[in-house]
Hints:
- The chain is an alpha+beta fold.
- The protein has helices spanning 14-20, 24-42, 44-47, 54-67, 129-148, 155-167, and strands spanning 72-82, 101-111, 114-115, 118-123, 180-181, 188-191, 205-208, 211-215, 218-221, 224-229, 232-235, 245-246.
- The protein has a single domain (20-246), classed as Alpha-Beta Complex (Creatine Amidinohydrolase).
- It is globular, with a radius of gyration of 18 Å.
Amino acid sequence: NAALPQPIGADADILRSLRLVKSEAEIEKIKTACQIATRAFERVPEIARIGQPLAPVFRDFQRLCLDEGADWVPYLAGAAAPGGYGDVISPADDRPLEAGDVLMLDTGLVHDGYFCDFDRNFSVGSPSPDVAAGHSRLIEATYAAFEAARPGATAAELFHVMDKIVTGGAGGSEAGRYGHGLGMNLTEWPSLIPTDHTPLVEGMVLTLEPGIELAPGRALVHEENIVIRENGAEWLSQPYGAEMIRI
């Protein structure tokens, strides 16, 4: 900054406002990225099975994303653990998948400079009753937020719609973030948290990302991508059903 002829000052949130609202061309790029990821997720049973370590599943899933048309896959998170997982950001290890595990993969792949960002949970074998019920509540919360996502609502309101379903409204600030903006960066404004009162406007692209604790150290997270339209929301990712896919 000291080497510049003029100091850099605040821009009165001009850049932020421009990034918040996407053009139709930008929305189409994000939608295409979502379609690529959906096709890759549909192929997960090709690469994940009982006895397969998580680390090669990660590598093979990145390959599937590239096979389906991604320009690159700069972000891939996930986990595999029995009855839910406690950490979704640690590196994949060589522990083999076992019956009763929940496998989660969360991808932020890029198409023509724009990200998608959503995940999918898979049950290795039949899910336990609490896992099945928890996953169903996550889907219910996501659909509820989708119905509430329309111009004039706020980011905080979407948070509370989801939090009421997954925690009974008791999560508050301890629940973390239930989604965010999406575009040229994996994470953009706004944040779906109780203190972000950014009004939703037509053209905003958001992730809906509720999480639910099944027991201490065991959780599930679900994520979808949407765009705000004049009369409501439109899915950009293909929404997941209430029943978890089995591998």
